[in-house]
Amino acid sequence: MSSTVPSAVKRPGRSQRPRRPRGRRPGGRGWVAPVLLILPTVIVIGVFVYGLIGSNIHTSLQDRHNIGPSQGFAGLDNYRDLFTDDDFIYSLRNLLLYTATFLVGTLSLGFLWAWLLERKARGESLFRAIYLFPMAVSFVASGVVWRWLLNNAEGDRASGLNRLFETLHLDFLQNPWWTNERWGILAIAVPAIWQLSGYVMALFLAGFRGIPEELREAARIDGASEWQLYRHVIFPQLSPVALSAIIIIGHMSLKVFDLIMAIAGQTNYTTQVPATQMWVEFTRGDYARSAAIGTVLLLIVAILIVPYLVSTYRQERRQ
Amino acid sequence: MTTTEAIPAAVASRVPGQRSRGVARTIKYVLLIGFALVVLLPAYVLFVTSFKGIGDATPTNAWKLPESWETAGWVRAWEQLGPALGRTFAMVIPASIISSVLGSMNGFVLSKWRFPGADVVFTLILFGMFIPYQAVMVPLVQLMGNLGVPSGVPSLIVLHVVYGLPITTLIFRNYYAGVPVELVEAARVDGAGMLRTYASIILPISAPAFVVVLMWQFTSAWNDYLFALFFSTSQNGPVTIALNFLASGQLQDYSASMAGALIASVPTLIIYILLGRYFVGGLMAGSVKG
For the segment A115-127, what is each residue's pLDDT rounded down to a tens digit? Predict the structure, then answer.
């Protein structure tokens, strides 16, 4: 595990799994102290994560659509309302389109960059630094410039990327970006890809570097072609990295919020997603609906994350 | 596509044929430089626009250099963002330190001084890293109100500490997993208790992990917008709130907005430039389990 995604943090000593201390020292004395030490965190996470998730689900089942107290139990009515609301369905569709584009974009660019840099390239560290720097910037700050680059004016009034395309005589590439009702959400994926492809590159680069040189040598001596080398040696070694990248980018993508707020604003129809709708309902004081949207988002993320956490847990147990 | 055919050849340095290797090399560097330019494009627009005068900073002029380099936009941005920058530091520094120290103790317990059920506890903590905060936000606002934590800096410190715990715990746990178990065992045999072992064996070798975790926490708290939106106002909020307020205002003050975006990014960019190696380490640690 640790060999596939090495950390830049130098681990002291060899990286051997600890044997369980309690096996060595039977009896109760061993675990009271550690439990006490970790107890504050357990309580805090218990309250702020699990307690609040429970409380949020409870609110989402109430008839509570203003700042006053609940008007009673509403069952699944709030969810039924959501899933029969065209706006919310549109938000979910947007989220799906955005996630697919963002994933495909970051994974392919990240992989390509890592591939180009994998074998000693002159100036490697400079390229790496350039590709990675957007990651250090907030979505709100990059949104300031991307709102401009993705300006929808065309022709004489064109600005941003449209102006650039015009100057380069690539007029057919001009488009209304995020104001297009059908595909506008894809425009939001462009800055997101710009910002996070470097991250995926760093992951893949670490994956490439984690493949022992002897493996490649052995494959070559066996007469493997370059393609066979990739197909049978390198890709299988990179798949854990690719999985991590999908989990990280996927769950970030499902939570997209800052970027949309910074580029299109909270009430823009073409770029609405569940997270922005949740905020709008909250500011209106419709707590039940807001909570219901939050729960739907949690379920979507959980579908991606829980299997991953369970498999991580199983691996931990096995060792 | 020519590129996909060319690169395997470039990678295979021992493929015979000097000429094809040269061509592949050229394609590789053209691609690398081309991508670098594309990535730098938004930074170029930010930079040149921030130095333009009001009349010059119009969308249709985005790609041109300033007619004359002026700093008025920077001054206006500084006036708008200055107080928020102070508040952001006041929030981010304590939040990163507290969550790192707690994460270090948790990581130690979960890797070196374990108790029955430690894996379950760890997995449950880890889930906190992935939840969409929208799923706790409505009751969270109530809870913070009931606890009486004031809006603005105090609220945000509490939230960044609490929701930072999963990742700080993860990073430290992975780091300590690499510490030879004999070190801890030896201390135990010598009669050192848990806290003694932590203070005299573990803490002194934790500096590299602290660098990564502090950086990670600093950057994510600095760049946060979601919590800031729910738990502060434009009067007491951090720099992301002030910047979005400035940039989405009716005035369309482009040079000030762009200068503001640069000002708001300076601290995290400095960290990235000075400690880039560790920055990548943090990214990796954020990605997995070690």
Answer: 888 877 788 888 8
Residues 6+ apart with CB under 8 A from A218: none
Instruction: Out of B14, B219, B248, name the one closest to residue A136 (CB).
Output: B219
Our CA dihedral for B63, B69, B70, B75, rounded to 10 degrees, sits at: 70
The alpha-helical segments, DSSP class H, found in A173-221 are: 184-209, 213-221
pTM above 0.90, yes or no: no
Residue A90 tokens read as 């549109």
Give the residue, A2 or B125, on which the prediction is more confident. Answer: B125
Q: What are B208-235's pLDDT values in tens digits? A: 889 889 988 999 999 999 999 999 988 8
Element (H, E) at B64: none
Return the residue matching tokens 């990670």.
B216
Class of domain B72-288: mainly alpha
In chain B, domain spans: 72-288
Would you call A21 and B114 a contact, using CB atoms and an 8 Å cutoff? yes
Q: Is A7–B105 a contact, with Cβ atoms under 8 angstroms apart?
A: no
d(CA A108, CA A112): 6
Q: Which residue segments constitute the domains of chain A, with CATH numbers given?
A: 52-318 (1.10.3720.10)
- Which amino acid is present at B6? A
Given a contact cutoff of 8 angstroms between Cβ atoms, the answer to whether B215 and B278 are in contact is yes
Residues of chain A contacting residue B123, judged by C-beta atoms under 8 Å apart:
309-310, 312-313, 316
- Answer yes or no: are the C-beta atoms of B258 and B61 closer than 8 Å: no
The DSSP secondary structure of A127-147, one letter per residue, reads HHHHHHGGGGS-HHHHHHHHH
DSSP code for A8:
S
Segments in chain A forming alpha helices (H)? 21-24, 29-45, 52-60, 77-83, 86-118, 124-132, 139-149, 160-167, 184-209, 213-221, 226-229, 235-254, 258-263, 274-284, 287-318
Residue-wise burial string across A87-114, b where 16 or more C-beta atoms lie within 10 A, e elsewhere: ebebbbebbebbbebbbebbbebbbbbb
Residue B278 has a pLDDT of: 74
User: Please, which residues 178-217 of chain A have a Cβ atom closer than 8 Å to chain B?
Assistant: 191, 194, 198-199, 202-203, 206
Q: So what's the pLDDT on residue B282?
A: 63
**pLDDT attached to residue B96:** 95
**Nearest by CB: B112 against A18, A167, A262:** A18
- Option in A11, A41, A127 nearest B169 (CB): A41
DSSP state of B150: P
